[in-house]
Amino acid sequence: MKIAPNTDASEWPKLRLDDASSQDWDKAIRILRGRIYERYIEPANRLIEHEKGRRKRFGFVIMAIDCLLVEALGAFRQGRLDTNGKSKSVFSQFLADAAEFKMDLSTAERIYDEFRCGILHLAEVKKRSLIRVSGPLCRAVSAEELIINRTTFHHALCHAFERYCQELADPANAELRRNFRKKMDHVCRVTP
Questions:
Q1: Per-domain boundaries in the chain
Q2: How far apart are CA 50 and CA 58, in angstroms?
Q3: Helices marked H in the chain — which ranges?
Q4: CA 192, CA 182: separation in Å to the nearest integer?
Q5: Is the pLDDT of residue 71 over 90?
Q6: pTM of the model
Q7: S-S: 9 plus which of 77, 93, 174, 188, CB 3.0-4.6 Å?
Q8: Within 10 A of 187 (CB to CB), how many other CB atoms are there?
Q9: Which are the contacts of 28, defined by CB distance < 8 A and separation ≥ 6?
């Protein structure tokens, strides 16, 4: 099973990650980068690039990809094997904690409900909320209307991911590293 470009799951358990100063941590982070870029960031980037100079927009699909990525990154940060029954807290906490989004937990929970749940469960954004290509990252118009600039949201998410990778590179972040390993061990079907 491929876990990232040119990386098979069988390679993961061979990494020496018990040693905080091991060079294998660089490889583990490269594997994560490859996995996240290939599955989430690059497809969204290509959609954004493809629509330049065209009337056709792909905001709905870009937002769907980014909602999946928010939840995935939240699970990695928290060391959750899955988000069953916890998706709201994982998703919302990730957005509220990430400095790149500059939002409170209440707004993050609205994004979870109106965008993430709307898109992934109903194939539409809920209430009167909208996905736009301009304006601020997030603007609450009313209790029924939240507007997301999906390009700004996507770029903030990319920056949050890069910051996470930088945090993983620091041996002092032992708990974050443990959570990352726990999640990747699960992805690679490594049993403790």
A1: 2-187
A2: 9
A3: 24-36, 42-50, 59-78, 87-97, 105-111, 150-169, 174-187
A4: 9
A5: yes
A6: 0.96
A7: 188
A8: 18
A9: 12, 15, 17, 168, 180, 181, 184
